[in-house]
Each structure stands twice: as structure tokens, then as C-alpha cells.
Amino acid sequence: MPVSLSTAASLYDRVRRVIPPIEWPAFTDDIDAILALKRQHNAVILAHNYQTPEIFHCVADIVGDSLALARKAMSVDADVILLAGVHFMAETAKLLNPGKTVLIPDLGAGCSLAESVTAEDVRLMRQRYPGVPVVTYVNTSAAVKAESDICCTSSNALQVVESLGAPRVIMLPDEYLARNIAAQTKIEIIAWKGHCEVHERFTPTDIRELREAHPGVTVLAHPECPPEVVAEADFAGSTAAMSDYVGRHKPARVVLMTECSMSDNVAVEHPEVDFVRPCNLCPHMKRITLANIRTALEQNRHIVTIDADVAGRARRAVERMLAI
């Protein structure tokens, strides 16, 4: 929901349960400045589910997982899009909005998955497995997307894989996502060895210890977690799917095996649910702050650019995904 006509003073009730009153004054000047800058520059802020609550609930106009942000970016009525997330997300927003200015507050906001594979790697995989279609997770650079047949997210990976009508596919770069999808389909999946540095740290022992410490807790896991973690969980799905699960089932106590700001953001919407928080932080997501969002809008930085040839081919892979 857009908050451009709000003020910091009117927004605290949204985040009262997850931001202590003593911390709130540190955010108010930046929030008010950002809200004014959005009006001044006809800008919107897209924020991923892993952003901190003062960003997610107080300055963002569009929030969600990678798939939701990709879809909603296509219909944004603004001159400037600021992506509160990591670099591959900003590139995706630019691919889908080539005529708009897309900003990312910190160029260092990367992704271990995106860094685990290159365009040359994809070309070599095609040589090794001629004729096998390549499904590329959105957590990749535009250059990698440009070498792919179609993209996917954790929300739609199974649907994308099965849409190709092929007996086997190459799926990269997340090995664990590929293995978790392979367990749900008869299609042979050739995986890459990339891992998310947040999700790979969760273990089945973590879940068993949480169940012992919190009897009756419902465990939700992201499919970037190792398959043995997914097997121990009560439910596995994307960040959007996990949020929807909490909304539908309203478990008395829940733990989300994913980046820890996700729990804060879902907790705001569900005060009746007790959230247990195993806190694995994404260092890249946490590079985005209110202060550098404000600076990005004040100085029109950092502008995301993509080579025209790369952009055209990468855009096709993203659009093929969105068309399913």
C-alpha cells in the first residue's frame, strides 16, 4: 500500500510490535524525508520481504517476494523505481521497465547465488548438455538470464520446469532449490552447485531443537534450504507462500526458516501469532537502509544500467516466466 501521503508520526502503530519505542525516533527524519522525496520525484519504492520493518512497512509502496516484485514492476506508474533489495532484483525491475530510471541504494547489495554462476558457465552447460533447456532462478545477473531459456522463482519453479515439456532440464544456480523441485516431478533436473548463504546454514538439528524448546511450533522452510531441512518442516514454500500459510492457518506458534526480517514483517500483519525467530541475517539485504534510500532519492543514485543486447535476451527469459 502506498504511504506517500503519510508521515512518520502516523506510521508507528504499524510497526509497534517489532520496533521498540526507544528506537523509533532514530527513523523518523529519514522516513519523512523519503516520503517527501517520493512525491517530488514521482518515485516508488519496491521492497523485498527481507527488508527491515521500517523500510517494508513505512516507506515501501510495493512489497513481496521476487515474483511479486517482478510482476508489479511492470505496471508501476512512476518515473523512478527504487529497489530496496539486492542487485539482481534491481536489474529485473530495469528489464521490465526499460524506459524508467531504476535506482539501488547500495551497489554492494549482492547475492551469493547470483555470484555463484556466470554467463560463460551457462554456455558451457549448454555445450555439455546440448538441447537441454536452461531454467534460471531469478537470483542471477542479467547476463546469466540472457543465456537462459526461461527464468523461475521459488514460487513458480515447479510450474516453470513442467511447462517446458522436456524430459530433463538444467536448473541453476541453487542446488537445493533444484533438488527440492526434483523431488516433486518426474522430470530429470541437472543442478548447479550454488547455495544461498542464509538458507544453507539451517539444519534438521535446528528444527528438532526448536520443536523441543517450543512444543507444538509449526515450522515453515524456504525451498533454498537443504532438502533434509525441507523434509523436517511442516511446510515449504517461497516467502510469499510462507506469509500466506500464516494468514490462512494462523498457527499459535510458528518459525520461519528464512532470513529473519521476514518474521518481523509477517508478525506485523498477524499479532495473534507467536513468532519464534532463528535469526539468520542476509548481509546483502541489510546493506539497504533508510539513510541510503534517502541519499539515493536525493542524488539520483545508483542508476541501474544493462547492455542493450543483454537486456533484450534477459527480458525474454523473464517475460516467458511471467507469461506462464
Low-confidence stretches: none
Strand order of the largest sheet: 2-1-3-4
Q: Mean pLDDT, nearest integer? A: 95
- How would the global form be characterised? globular
Largest sheet: 4 strands, parallel
Tally of domains: 3
* Rg from Cα: 20 Å
Measured distance between first and last alpha carbons: 26 Å
Q: How would you spell out the order of helices and strands? A: HHEHEHEHEHEHEHEHEHEHEHEHEHH
Query: In percent, how helical is the residue content?
Result: 40-55%
Give the strand content. 5-15%
Number of helices: 15
Quaternary structure annotation = single chain
CATH topology heading of the largest domain: Rossmann fold
Summing up helix and strand content along with how strands pair, one would put the structural category as alpha/beta
Identify the CATH architecture of the largest domain.
3-Layer(aba) Sandwich
The fourth-level CATH homologous superfamily of the largest domain is NadA-like
What is the CATH class of the largest domain? Alpha Beta
Give me the count of strands: 12
Provide the descriptors you would attach to this structure in a database record.
324 residues; alpha/beta; Rossmann fold; 3 domains; four-stranded parallel β-sheet; 15 helices; 43% helix; globular
Tell me what the structure shows.
With 324 residues, the chain is an alpha/beta fold. The chain is 43% helix and 15% strand. The strands form three sheets. Strands 2-1-3-4 form a four-stranded parallel β-sheet, with helices on both faces. Strands 6-5-7-8 form a four-stranded parallel β-sheet, sandwiched between helices. Helix 2 runs parallel beside helix 14 and helix 4 runs parallel beside helix 5. The longest helix has 17 residues, at 25-41. The radius of gyration is 20 Å and the shape is globular. The mean pLDDT is 95.
